[in-house]
Amino acid sequence: MELKLVLILTLISATVTAEYIRPQPRKTLHIPWPLDSNSKSQSYPHQVHISLAGDKHMRITWITDDKHNSPSFVQYGILPGKYDSIAEGESTSYNYLLYSSGKIHHTVIGPLEDNTVYFYRCGGQGHEFQLKTPPAQFPSTFAVAGDLGQTGWTESTLDHIDRCKYDVYLLPGDLSYADCMQHLWDTFGKLVEPLASTRPWMVTEGNHVEESMLSLMDGFVSYNSRWKMPFEESGSTSNLYYSFEVAGVHVIMLGSYADYDVYSEQYRWLKEDLSKVDRKKTPWLLVLFHVPWYNSNKAHQGAGDDMMAAMEPLLYAAGVDLVIAGHVHAYERSKRAYNGRLDPCGPVHITIGDGGNREGLAHRFINPQPKWSEFREASFGHGELRIVNSTHAFWSWHRNDDDQSVQADDIWITSLVSSGCVNQKSHELRSMLMKP
Ligand SMILES: *[C@@H]1O[C@H](CO)[C@@H](O)[C@H](O)[C@H]1NC(C)=O
Ligand SMILES: [Fe+2]
Predict the structure, then answer these.
(1) For residues 327 and 290, is the Cβ–Cβ distance under 8 A?
(2) Are residues 132 and 112 in contact, defined by beta-carbon separation less than 8 angstroms?
(3) Where is the Purple acid phosphatase C-terminal domain (predicted)?
(4) Is the peptide bond before 134 cis (omega within 30 degrees of 0)?
(5) How confident is the model at residue 20 (pLDDT cuts 50, 70, 90)?
(6) What is the Cα–Cα distance from 303 to 100, expressed in whole angstroms?
(7) Is the distance from CB of 41 to CB of 102 less than 8 angstroms?
(8) CA–CA distance, 412 with 166 (Å, rounded to integer)
(9) What angle do CA 190, 194, 195 make, to 5 degrees?
């Protein structure tokens, strides 16, 4: 009898050894606050991050404890310690209930050479940073992960992204998970500085950055003050949606938490932005926002439906190649789809809210798997999008639950320009753009 039991147990364990063993949940990091800035100086720059700011320009953002005297200039050049250029910027600060932010500096530098390392120093204080500008032509690489937070998982996601030699990081919403605890924006800024000060981080908003409090606090106060994106440079009136271009790719960052109906300012801006896209110059068209439209996870099921109803026809007519969203803490990749069905001229949809925040994973998927859904897995990780040339891009997703970066999903994507879809639909797009 006992022997039989042992035999059965051995058999069971032999059949499950091939299965993926999920490690224990990881804890929220405890980054000391106030930040230790290694210096007595109140104007010591911390939380340095950079973002693209129009053609050949970069915005440098940093925070100082001193609110009055610390200057907002950046010295920079292509040799370490030798700065032959200087740019003057602006600063802001905000109060949130009892919290009072440091001085938040935003300084745009440029024009900069493409694919070049620059050395820079903020406000004449602190140590020297270096950044690399994106290339002017293919190939280029984007790193992608949403819903980052600041846990042990976030740390390994950042570690893997750091090792992948990317040009620009795309974050489809939800950064610090501060959720009104304002000092957590500071600790997040410190956590991401080693990466975000060296490559442009392009972000859009998520629900965890809104932080509105009934009539007490407006929404997105902290997010907009700290993570200023090139909305003015792209003709938008709101930091919640904007666009930019990198080496043959036009990227549109939409706002899931700004009005998006066909009468909204966002929709009007989107039409204007699409009318300016030249697919000869930028054959690739990417769109990012927070709440996914194609999602077969039980988490946030249907939450993107309204935005999808309003905006999907326009994006389809424009021949968008790839749509990237976050919000759901898992990974999912669709086949080309439109209006809920397979469509060779629709975008590939990717949900990648798996950066590693404290809320953990969204484990439960709807069964059977919808026809449009090609790959789905509830694990943390990051994506890499390598735009190889005007017709081919290579997408890969790297699971990181167990510290190792494991490439778990990959696919070659051919552009909709090269498959003729963009040409085919150009009439449809033109008439949609003309509609008042
Ligand atoms: C683009 O890259 C793909 C994959 O490496 C290759 O097969 C194709 O020939 C390239 N196309 C052009 C126009 O260079
Ligand atoms: Fe979210």
Answers:
(1) yes
(2) no
(3) 346-404
(4) no
(5) low
(6) 34
(7) no
(8) 18
(9) 110
**How confident is the model over 407-420, as a mean pLDDT?**
96
pLDDT digits (tens, 9 = 90+) for 37-86: 566 688 899 999 999 999 999 999 999 998 888 999 999 999 999 999 99
**pLDDT band at residue 436 using 50, 70 and 90 as cut-offs:** confident
Category of 315 on φ-ψ map: left (φ > 0), alpha (ψ -120 to 50) or beta = alpha
Per-residue 3-state assignment (H helix, E strand, C coil) for 365-397: ECCCCCCCEEEEECCCEEEEEEECCCCEEEEEE
Ligand 1 binding pocket, CB closer than 6 Å: 388-389, 391-392
For 342, the enclosing helix (H) or strand (E) is strand 341-342
Domain 45-132, what fold? Immunoglobulin-like (2.60.40)
DSSP one-letter string for 28-71 = BP---SS---SSS-TT--EEEEEEE-STT-EEEEEEES-SSS--
Tracing tokens 């620059």 back to the chain, one arrives at 118
Mutating to test ligand 1, I would choose from 140, 392, 412, 415 the residue with most ligand atoms within 8 A of its C-beta, which is: 392
* The token pair that represents 136 in the structure block: 């002017």
371/374 Cα distance (integer angstroms): 8
Q: Which residues are catalytic?
A: 300
Tell me, what DSSP letter sits at residue 22?
Answer: P
Distance (angstroms) between ligand 2 centre and the Cα of 313 equals 24
Of 138, 284, 388, 412, which is best to mutate to test ligand 1, by the most ligand atoms within 8 angstroms of its C-beta? 388
Domain boundaries, the chain: 45-132, 140-434
The model's pTM is: 0.94
Residues bordering ligand 2, an ion, CB closer than 5 Å: 174, 206-207, 327
Fold of 140-434: Purple Acid Phosphatase; chain A, domain 2 (3.60.21)
